[in-house]
Every structure is written in structure tokens, then in C-alpha cells.
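COMPLEX REQUEST
Ligand: uracil
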Amino acid sequence: MVNKEILNQEFIKSIESEYIFNNAPINRFNKKHDSNETFKELTQLKDKIKSIEDCELKKFSKNMVFSDGSHKSSLMIVGEGPGDTDDTQGKPFVGDAGILLNKMLNAINIKRENVYITNVINYKTPNNRRPESSEIKRYSVFLREHISIISPKILILMGSTAMEALLGQRLKISKERGRWKEVIINKKTFLTFLTFHPAYLLRQPDQKKFSWEDLKIIRKKIDELKIKL
Ligand code: URA
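STATUS: Structure written out below.
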């Protein structure tokens, strides 16, 4: 079998598509956080990503960028991957896109430190190019584990890379944004929302009006679900 087909099959297996058609009940109740256990699992995942081999991205990065914010949060945000500033500081969303993300969160009364932020890719790409599909597939395995550990009540995917990592390549963010979806990971369903990436909004400020609509939908859901942030 050609390499690409094997990769595709592995990816389809990893998204557990069979559960979408399974009659068995899906556990929609996310686990209660045991903070120590979560911390231990996150450390193990971090070590696993640090020890990745044969990764071009890792070779050219200063730091592995894992996450920021509260691991107890019910709201998890997934971006694409670190930029230069993030790579230097070892933290996601601390450059220009991060400044806009902070403003977006503030606009709906959320403090950045009360959410949990990560990326699909944990290392910077050369010249900040978009990660390749093979890289997205490779790192999406870690991302899925990451989501499973944090077990958020709401998962926000920002941009097409995060969307591709969890929902595959066929969708277009401009069509899918502003909608709730269900993503199944490790037999659990995660309420997931797609929206534009802040870096895209910096390049296309006229799209901010759609982003604002999305932010209001997210706020409404947080209030409906009585989520404390
Ligand atoms: N910084 C990040 O950490 N992630 C992005 O997707 C963009 C900038």
C-alpha cells in the first residue's frame, strides 16, 4: 500500500469514526478534574512530545510550546502552532496573534488565564509556513490526548489547521465557522466550535465582524451551560 493511503487509514482510525455510527451511548459527561492526576498526565504528554524523533520542526525550534492557562478550565482553545515570539518564550499565543486573542477573550468577559490554550503543532515551522498535512496528522495524535486529559466542556478550534487536525481536510473554515460540532475522542464527545484564527483576522480585518458573531455565540453557550471561568 502506498504511504499516503497508510497515513490516511491511520488518521481515520485515530478519529474513531466508527463511534459516529455506533448505537452505543456516548459518554457526554466529562470527567471531574483531579488536578494532581491531570498535572501528571500533562507532564507525561509533554515528555512524549519532547522525545519525538525525526521531526524537522523540532530541529529548528528553540523550545517546545505546550500550553498556557489553567488546566482546570472548562474552555480549551486550539490554535495552529507557535510563531517566533512563542518559540522564544516557550508559550503559545504571546506574539501579535496572542495579543488579538487576549482582546477577543476580553470582549466576551473572559480572562486569558482562566482558559486553557494549546496548538496543533508544538514546534515552530520554518519561516512560519502552514504545517503540512503529514505534520498535522502526526501531531494530532498528541492533540487528541491533550484534549482528553483537559476534558473541556467547550473546545474552540481556531483556524483551518486546528479544524483539519480534528475533522479532516475536506472542510473549509469559512463555511464551517460559527457552528457547533461534536468531536469524539477516546469515546467521549466534546462540544466543539469553529472560528477564525486571530492571525487570519490580522491579515483580513474585514472578517472581524464574523469573528465577533462567533464570540457572542461562544459567550451565550458558556452562560447557558453555567460554566464558571
Ligand atoms: N501563536 C500560537 O501559539 N499559535 C498560533 O496558532 C499562532 C500564534
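REMARKS: Residues 67-229 form a domain with the Uracil-DNA Glycosylase, subunit E fold (CATH 3.40.470.10). Residues 79-83, 86, 92-93, 95, 97-98, 119, 199 surround uracil (CB under 6 Å).
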